[in-house]
Write a structure and sequence with these properties.
CATH architecture of the largest domain: Alpha-Beta Horseshoe
InterPro entries: EF-hand-dom_pair, EF_hand_dom, EFC12, LRR_dom_sf
Number of strands: 7
Number of helices: 7
CATH topology of the largest domain: Leucine-rich repeat, LRR (right-handed beta-alpha superhelix)
Structural class: alpha/beta
Strand order of the largest sheet: 1-2-3-4-5
CATH class of the largest domain: Alpha Beta
Helix content: 40-55%
Pfam families: EF-hand_7
CATH superfamily of the largest domain: Ribonuclease Inhibitor
Organism: Ridgeia piscesae
Oligomer: single chain
GO molecular function, one term: calcium ion binding
Protein name: EF-hand domain-containing protein
Distance between the termini: 62 Å
Number of domains: 2
Largest sheet: 5 strands, mixed
Shape: elongated
Amino acid sequence: MLTTLDLSCNRINSQGFLRICQAVEGNEDIRVLKLGQNPINEETAMAALELFKNMGVLRLEVLDLSENLYGKRFEQKLAELHEVHPDFMCRHGYTDSYGKRRLKRYSVVEDAMDAMRQYCQEHNINIVELFSRFDADGSMSVTHEEFKLGLKEAKMPLTDYQVEELIKALDQDGDGEIDFR
């Protein structure tokens, strides 16, 4: 009997992914379904989790969606599924070690902070000195606009999305300024 089905990296789209997930309901043997490295968007992955949640008996133990990045809504849907099927496991996110398949969650903020740390190392400065360069009035805080402009002038390799998420994380009190005292 077939207990593991590996369809990783096969260009399976969202529609094909959902059809495979629907077929799991009638299958009593498959325990591991590997569909990583396929273009499966978050909405479709969440729909599959909802489908699994509503199954009376879920024999599938592992759904591997490695190399697909999903956000908080997906995590919430996965938590709902665990309430009904606590032994089910869904792997997703980047793998951090080829061959070992240890999974690492991707954080936009951590990635952006790593880019800033690397920039500071390359320019032999610390993070406070970097922020001081952005601080036009010497107030030990920078507005969101000063921060964006400073990153742009420094030619920091960050996307607009990374910058926005970084601002949300750094402006903890939500006053419109990033305090770096």
